[in-house]
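Per your request, structure below.
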């Protein structure tokens, strides 16, 4: 039986968790990542070189969307978690309500993309 894992957060820590789970138990979880930012996770450490013109924003992407799709990982971008109901094991976002078997908070810091 596949366990539905919902990860609140779509940053470097969340993606590292997904990578490790896929490596160690590739068919154990159906994974959903929820993040407020548009698109997939990126390496925030590389933001200074992007702002300095040494790298492009695309150079900071941890994995392209196709990587997530190939591994059966659902990425919910531009979606904010509004509530977690532990008793009913649901997460309510700005767009929907999701049931979960396992829940991880990997929110990190406040998401901000410089203009």
């Amino acid at each position: 039986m596949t366990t539905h894992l919902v990860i609140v957060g779509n940053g470097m820590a969340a993606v590292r968790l997904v990578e490790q789970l896929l490596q160690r138990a590739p068919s154990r979880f159906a994974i959903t990542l929820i993040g407020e930012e548009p698109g997939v996770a990126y390496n925030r450490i590389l933001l200074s070189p992007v702002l300095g013109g040494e790298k492009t924003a695309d150079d900071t992407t941890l994995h392209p969307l196709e990587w997530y799709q190939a591994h059966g990982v659902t990425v919910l971008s531009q979606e904010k978690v509004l509530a977690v109901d532990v008793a009913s094991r649901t997460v309510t976002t700005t767009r929907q309500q999701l049931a979960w078997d396992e829940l991880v908070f990997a929110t990190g810091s406040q998401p901000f993309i410089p203009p």
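The helical segments are 12-24, 47-51, 65-70.

Regards,
D.
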